[in-house]
Amino acid sequence: MKRTTLIIALLITFFSNAQDYVVEEKFTPKTYGNLFAEFNPNNRSIVSWGRSYDSSSDEFLIPKGSNYFDARYQYNQKLFLGCSFVSGFGYNWDAIRLNNDSATLYNDSVFHDKRKLRFQNITTNLGLRFQTSSHPDEGFFFQATMYNDFLVHSASVTWDEVGDSELKTRLKGLDYVNKHSMGVELRFGYMAFAMFSRYSLKDIFKNSDGYQGIPRLTFGVQIEMAASE
Amino acid sequence: MNKVLIFIIILFSFSSWGNEGYFVTFETKNTQQVFNPYSYFDEVAIENKKLMGLPLYDWYDLPVNEDYLKAVKSIADSVGFDLRWFNGVTVYCDNIQLSKIKSLPFVKQVVNLGGAEIIASGSESEFSKDLIEDFQVFDWQLSTMGGQHFQNRNLSGKGIRVGVVDVGFEGANENVQLNHLFENDLLKDAWDFALNKPLDYEDGPNHGTVVSSFVFGKIDTFQVGHAVNSEALLAKIKAPFKSNNSIEEAWLKAIEWMHQKGARIVNSSVGYTGDTHTHDMLTGDTCKMSLAANLAARKGMLIVNSAGNDGLDVWKRIAFPSDADSLLTVGAIDTEEGVRTGYSSYGPSKDLRLKPNVTAIGDVYWFNNEGLRAMEGTSFSSPLVAGFGACVLQNTPNLKPMDLMDTIQKSSTLYPYFDYSHGYGVPQASLYFKEDTIKGDSASVILKKSPSYLVDGYYYLKYRSHIGSQIFYQIVSEEDYIKEYYVVRFEDEDDSPKIYFKDLRKGQKIRVFHRGTFIEEEFK
User: Fold this and answer.
1) Closest chain A CA to residue B316
2) Which residue in chain A is spatially nearest to B462 when comparing CA positions?
3) What is the pLDDT of residues B158-179, one digit of tens each?
4) Which ipTM value was assigned to this complex?
5) Could you say which of B150, B177, B453, B502 has the lowest number of CB atoms within 10 Å?
6) What does residue B296 show for φ and ψ, rounded to 5 degrees?
7) C-beta separation of B19 from B77 below 8 A
8) How far is B477 from chain A (nearest CA, A)?
9) Which has the higher per-residue pLDDT, A77 or A39?
10) Do A26 and B483 touch (CB under 8 A)?
11) Are A39 and A30 in contact (CB under 8 A)?
12) pLDDT tens across B311-329, in order?
């Protein structure tokens, strides 16, 4: 009971703020008259690059060539102290280079010199962010979010050497992949630079098609900047 | 069906009437022609110039060369006003005619008049109670600027000619607040520059009537404006079906006319934003209206202009001609917190000069002969300041416009502190007469540096008296513009905002204002 009272008292301390900001305005000549000058630095733009790995021992993925890119917007809504609620949206380009040993993963089970699956998704995320500074451009931060990917485009690409030439085959609109994916993303950064990891909680392939799953983990780096001053 | 079609065609024909508008300036004036200032200027204008020690006329007052005007008129479809101050004339013509005009040897420059949105609005809502009781609100309105200090000294703008340029003065001749202007011969002239004819009070809108009330208005013993005994000049600049181009042209002509008629102060609760007017032009020397405002100050007439009501809109900044540096730009504060209202436009000018210069209440009451109406807009804060200026001029008639502007700024609540929302604050007659009772003998707030043993160093503010009253503070950049500014209030003496060192760079300054205490500290 005493512990509960203490926690409540601490929370009240966090949330109560006797200083009353009647006017709080920031000005910079760079944004003079700009529509986005109304925005504050909690509007963030993020670009990411990473590589995907098979987190199981099967190693169906080849990390080299399994590249992940995204560009997104995020808004940090401050809750208390350095804690913010974050929400965002963006677009990602996700490629998976598959090992030839993973032949059972495909409709096409023929041996290929190289094979990739390519996806493009609209992505959204929601979560919490903890920052050592009150300004999102400064200090260290840690962020944990749940993401949702909604498939916009999918393709299977294979490369084969036929005689002296290379044969590239592309199949679009894959019907055996899930239209929706979700997972967890963790980010850790300092000022404008961050490292991230994404772990997919939903398999790429539709279960009903009987494909073997690929537990997928993505690691990468990010640059994060204020979307406006 | 055919009738409808014909009607639509006629409508389209109307909408496509008229060619583009241009302003044509000429190389020279006929300086050999004899110019008699006594015949051109009103005798009050002559007296004003003598009083201020200004030359009776200068090059700008000389007329535009008649031969040049004739030549342009013979080419263009139509011409508008000739403007002495700019040595030019507005013309309406097609591209072929324009080429011919450009090729005339005496034509210096041709610029497109462009378009813009005019701001001259204020929202209103009905509010009616017992009349006598309600009218006390007028005393309160003027008391926000210390109006009683003027009234106690019988300062009411007497002998000072004040002009109002506005979009319309509907019902001004019947409104009880302005009756005394008509009955006591205080209205010296009124002209419609949109239609170039004497002002017709039947034509709307009534924006100028409301605005004029806050300069000259009174009901019985209640003053609505500070300058109830000033002489008035009214100029209308808008007419139905006239484009905004002609409004700008009419505004410029009206300002020349006000100067000719001897106005010492002109209130202009109109402004332009958008279209061909861009933020990059808010430099005070780009828009013709702004140039005219600066010239007016040089010639003995101060223009007081509302900042604009774009604080919550995309435009956000002040409207033209409020960017002019010799023009007094007035923003609006709310009546509860005493800080910028949401709608009041932000400064500074594009070249980072202080704008607005001062503020006054923008949420006001006005009597429409039936009941009180609640009004809001910077349109109404501006005339309150114009009236204030007229009282100052009555007290010290030889003040030149820039001295008057300086006096008003120095009499304002925040002076010498200023920011881009409040300017120097609200002009106060008590400060003008140096009868202020707010500022105490000692500083009411102090700025302290955090103890050096703290890694995360900061400055912080502490009340020494009057806990709970607002503290204004700001961080000034090395380039001398205000980087951040705040108005804060604490309920407890121990509360204080922290201004962190890590956000500050060498050369930046912290400025603080609280109840007359002004602190400036440079970060080293």
Assistant:
1) A33
2) A19
3) 999 999 999 999 999 999 999 9
4) 0.70
5) B453
6) -60, -40
7) yes
8) 10
9) A77
10) yes
11) no
12) 887 788 999 999 999 999 9
